[in-house]
């Protein structure tokens, strides 16, 4: 189950980046030209896909040599660190050309980790699945990328079709109704 969820999350992240590349990434990191920004954003998106097979081979070798667990931990850490790095990356206006360079670096690391995660997930599922259902269980891992892509597309469409005020209003309503009463209230309205 963890391998299936990990695969969904991995592809959710990939598809979300792809959907947001032209709309969000290009203006943030490539302010000089709109067309150049879109081209560079999609090229950065492609870097992750080019790195995937290399990550599968390199970290697969680590899995063969040192065990599946260290390889899976490494791949998940690579994905996590790269994703956080992309999220915290300042814009080109703030740090100049270092922003797109770091974005490409983080996408490369993310691609290496993602390639290893999918290959590792399939291997782990194949090793732990009952012999009679090994094919079914392994095929489920490969059925998860479309689920992640559908979730990312739905999330992006939902976020982009709702205005900023409506989105913030929804967060405000959630935060307003979420707090629980403390012991200091003693049943009074606080």
Automatic annotation (TrEMBL):
Principal location: membrane
Keyword flag Acetylation: no
One function term, GO molecular function aspect: transmembrane transporter activity
PROSITE patterns named among the record's database cross-references: MFS
Domain Major facilitator superfamily (MFS) profile: 1-190
GO cellular component, one term: plasma membrane
Keywords: Cell membrane, Membrane, Transmembrane, Transmembrane helix, Transport
Keyword Transmembrane: yes
Protein localization: Cell membrane
Transmembrane segments: 12-30, 36-59, 71-89, 136-159
Highest taxon in the source lineage: Bacteria
Membrane disposition: Multi-pass membrane protein
Listed InterPro entries: MFS_dom, MFS_sugar_transport-like, MFS_trans_sf
Protein name per Swiss-Prot or TrEMBL: MFS transporter
